[in-house]
Structure formats: structure tokens, C-alpha cells
Amino acid sequence: MSIRFTAKARRRMAALSVVAGLALGVAGCGGGDGEDKKPQTSASASGSGGSDQRAQEGQSEEPLIELKGPDSLLLQITSAVRDSGGFVTVSGTLKNDGGDTVNVPAQLSGNETEIIRNGRSLGGATLVDSQGKKRYYVLRDTDGRPLTTTNFPAMKSGESLPVFMQFPAPPADTTEVTFQLPMFATAPIKISE
């Protein structure tokens, strides 16, 4: 009987140690920079993308380009900014320019199973560097979610939503790329620093 009691106690202690270790690991990954008052949101968790303040800046700027898409959708790109981390964030507004309510087409997510699994997004967008002969796809997080605006609601007539897409940055000497999104026209855009 004492052997059974000892074995149960050891299992409980091992389980308690594992739980405590996991709790410490999660707490250790929590940041620790003293700004625990504000909850962190991931880029894909929020519909308008909350990961990069620059993605929301410039929404009132004059668009760099306007691309017409299906069902009277209009994509206005207001900025394409290269950051020091090796990324390019393309920001803008998706607008329903028609008279009827429109659902954002699933084709804008692209055709990759991993991205489609995470709901409607702009995951099918690419940047083409014709100088370097490379195509850059929307980045994904460690769970396979695209680093772009996701989960679009039905858009009423005249309604617009801020959008963003994050790509790997082309080489520093590449300042112009071609932006492509399924079902939309393509256009060159300039990358700013």
C-alpha cells in the first residue's frame, strides 16, 4: 500500500511540475517591458490588423494607386513602407463603390490551403520584383495565418475598410514593384523607406 501511495504522489508531483513549468514559460513569453496594461493583438486576429501602427497611418492620404476589382470593389493603396525588420507593409482601403451590398470574394485569399483554412483575407496578394525576377507572397505567422487583413464582413454600398498586407522586403535597391491581387487589375507601386 505504501508503494502505491508513493507512486501516486510521484505522479502528482510530476504533473504539478509540468503545469508549473508551462505556466512559467507562458509568463516568460508575456513581454516584461512594463506595458502589460494594454492587451497585445495579433495582426490576423483583428479585422483591420493591429500589429503595425504604420499600417493604419496614411489612411487619409491620397492613394498611390486605385485598382478596380469584381462587384464594384475598389482597392486604394495609400502606402508601401519598407521597415528595418526586412518587411514591406502595404496599406490602403477596400471600398464598395457600387450600389449593392457585396461579400468580399474568397478568391482574394489565393489558393494555398494553409491560408484558405484561416478565412477570407488578402492572402493571395503578391509583389513582383521584375528587376530581381522574384515574386513575394504575403507573410504568414507560425500558425499559418496570413499577415494581412482577414475575416471581411459583408460591405454595404459606399462602405470602406482599412486593409494591410505584409511581405518580405525585396533588396534595398528595388524601389518599385508590381502589386497583384486575384481578380483586381495589377499596378506598379513605389516602396518608401
Automatic annotation (TrEMBL):
<feature type="signal peptide">
    <location>
        <begin position="1"/>
        <end position="31"/>
    </location>
</feature>
<keyword id="KW-0732">Signal</keyword>
<feature type="region of interest" description="Disordered">
    <location>
        <begin position="31"/>
        <end position="64"/>
    </location>
</feature>
<protein>
    <recommendedName>
        <fullName>Secreted protein</fullName>
    </recommendedName>
</protein>
